[in-house]
Amino acid sequence: MEKDNKPQRISLGKGLTALSPLFVFLGLFVVLSIIAGDFYGVPITVAFLAASVYAVGIVRGERLEERMEVFSKGAARPDLLFMIWIFVLAGAFAASAKDMGAVEAIVEVSLRVLPPQLILTGLFLAACFISISIGTSVGTIVALVPIAQGMAQQTGNSLPLIIASVVGGAFFGDNLSFISDTTIVATRSQGCRMSEKFRANLRIALPAALLTIILYIILGSQFQMQYTAHDIQWVLVIPYLLVLGTALAGVNVMGVLLLGILSTGVIGMLSGSYNLFQWLKAMGDGIMGMSELIIVTLLAAGLVNVIRHMGGIDFLLQRLSAHISSRRGGELCIAVLTVLTDLCTANNTIAILTVAPLAKEISIRYGIAPQRTASILDTFSCFAQGLIPYGAQLLMASSIALINPLDIIPYLYYPFILGACALGFIFVGKKE
Predict the structure, then answer these.
(1) Which of 346, 352, 274, 261 is CA-nearest to residue 303?
(2) What are the tens digits of pLDDT across the range 230-273?
(3) Which helix H or strand E contains 151, and what residues bound it?
(4) pLDDT at position 266
(5) Cα 344 from Cα 335, distance rounded (Å)
(6) Quick one: which of 100, 165, 276, 360 is 20 to 30 A from 350 by CA?
């Protein structure tokens, strides 16, 4: 069913009903986990399945086949399927690299170069640099989380904290990179140049990154080095050097991962780490290890599309945009709309696309510079992604590291500091 550009006003009851599947999911996953005292007690796939069944069930005036079509269209978006391709390739690369010993080799090199006090800082800066080069937080996480996991295991330090340093750095580049999809969508939707948005955005992201680095230096001063040095098989480092090098060179993330997979096969077989069939099995195991992540991604996308179809997203946009009386109020409204929409969609690009038309109207009405609006859209969508355990970044990181995404969130210092800096940008920043 096609909607008009200016949908009819949605009542409170209808709007809350449309958003209720999200409440069902949060109730099942978060509340029950808190009650049980175990965040592994309620599988996220089951919570999403229950919420999806509920969402399809409460749609009124349509046959079951039509409701399922709405759900399926959400799960079949081209951008979503592209992400699933990345998940599949990431699983194959991570497992084949691990089985051949590439992760252990690169960890051994890293631990010899970095003193224990700088592990957090080094991983954060590496993630910042790679993500701003390749424009994707997920690709950065795929490249660095296995290394971070190995460093945590070798040194005996907190795994969630070390993984969070990579995820935080990945958000930095996703927010600033000229080739990031969020940057492209934010600038095009607001009609400003990328360089203008970059300058505005840098005033938020750079102080946040510097504060995070200071915090990591302080936390790292307590790190202990509890590992025994081993001989390094330098040839096994090559797949990760290829992945990191091509990523920094700006090669598409799928090309990066394909090259990484092929290099693990060639080098693994030549070095005797495994034979052809063991390599194929490692890839298969890695792909199957991504199955939960893929299922959650599909269910979440379908659920969001049903919420959108029932008017839940339009309800949020209408309610929050009705109480604006100043430029600062307009900027705050854009920020809150972006965060809430991201919480509903679990995708920062989709959140920006959804809020962008209304954000442009607000900007014109209250004299907000386009680059400032684009920066607010991008920054608060990245901040929101750090709040949700069902976003692609945390799901990918937790799948690779074999931990619960909720374990990572308390240590995501950069997104939280970024949100605080972005609020300061709104309240004390000069009008551009």
Answers:
(1) 346
(2) 566 778 888 877 877 776 676 777 888 898 899 999 998 998 88
(3) helix 137-155
(4) 92
(5) 14
(6) 165
Element containing residue 405 per DSSP (H, E):
helix 405-408
> pLDDT tens, 110-122?
667 777 778 888 8
Phi, psi of 122 (to 5 degrees): -65, -45
Contact present, 400 and 141 (Cβ < 8 Å): yes
Q: What are the phi and psi torsion angles at 346 (to 5°)?
A: 60, 30
Distance, CA of 352 to CA of 307 (rounded, Å): 17
Say if CB 264 and CB 100 are below 8 A apart. Answer: yes
Nearest Cα to Cα of residue 392 among 29, 53, 82: 82
Q: Cite the DSSP H helix spans in 271-290.
A: 276-289
How far, in Å, CA of 46 to CA of 24, rounded?
12
Place of tokens 């309620």: 42
State the Cα–Cα distance between residues 296 and 390, nearest whole angstrom.
Answer: 8
What's the token pair of residue 334? 């854009």
Say yes or no to pLDDT of 3 above 50. no
The count of other CB atoms within 10 Å of the CB of residue 195 is 11
Q: 38 pLDDT band (50/70/90 cuts)?
A: low
Placement of tokens 């069944």 in the chain = 53
Name the burial class of residue 235, with classes exposed (0-12), middle (13-18) and buried (19+) by CB atoms within 10 angstroms of its CB.
middle
Tens of pLDDT, residue by residue over 377-401, are: 999 998 998 888 888 889 889 888 8
